[in-house]
Amino acid sequence: MLTGAQETEYIAVIDDGHVKKQILTPGISDVKPTKFSSVQIHYESFLFKSNKKFDSTYDRAMPKEAELSMGVFVKGLELALLTMTVGEEANIVCSYDYAYGEEGQYPLVPQKCKVRFQVKVLSTWEKVDRVHDQLNMAKAKKDEGNGYMKAGHVLNALYTYKAGRQYVIDLWACSFDELQESRALIVALSLNMAACYMKTAEWKTAQELLKYVIERDPRTTKAYYRLGQIAIQLEEYDQATDMIKEGLTEWIEDTEDRRILENMITTIEKEQQVALKSKTQVYRRMFN
User: Fold this and answer.
1) For residue range 232-267, what is the model confidence (pLDDT) as tens digits?
2) Contacts within 8 Å (CB) and 24+ apart, 138-147
3) What CATH number does domain 128-217 carry, 3.40.50.720, 1.25.40.10, 1.10.600.10, 3.30.460.40?
């Protein structure tokens, strides 16, 4: 629970001091939202005096995504978010006039109640309308996500890749060259998202993304290779082997891509034999 002494460690977000912020974890980049940005955040909300939690995206296992200045977040939280960078985690304390007002939010928040939000910024992005700008923003988010991934910030990378993909996922009213570029970006960003899910062992989600990539571009070697890696984790050997063999039809000639996939099939078959031998030994011990 925060004490009055602890509250003095906060810095004022606005001049009257009715919104204050305490940085818990510094950001991992200089990227911060602007007044009309969209953000993806995790947060927990507490009554300040009792420290009673009344809302949490962590409990729902789903970050909150919203455009600022649309009234989705309380005023004090929006003002504080404008000062935060991607990856930053902070405590935000808001007086009632910058939170839920005189009436509160029955039955969760009493009247004239000061509240505290513990917030982490996962990603932020701008709304753009021109095709050229959408393509550029998608590329920028891919590069930004790559930077987070290399630094080991998998969750921030994932949500940044997701933000980048949103710019181009439904891009149709454009030239042929722009359409081809958007398709390539969708494939690249989806591959990167799958890599993030593999890092967090969310195998099925990664698997579905990779299948989507193959539908978009059947000659994406990385997608087949990663499906093979997932198959070993899930022990879905035959299914993965069949899919990779189907992929091999895209490379009739002897190329490096073909050799990579052939080697993956060999690896899967070896792992399948190891797994089968292990299970056989278990069954023998059970019946002896």
Assistant:
1) 999 999 988 998 998 898 887 878 999 999 999 999
2) 138/164, 138/165, 138/167, 138/168, 138/182, 138/185, 138/189, 139/164, 139/185, 140/164, 141/167, 141/189, 142/185, 142/188, 142/189, 142/192, 144/29, 144/31, 144/86, 145/189, 145/192, 146/192, 147/29
3) 1.25.40.10
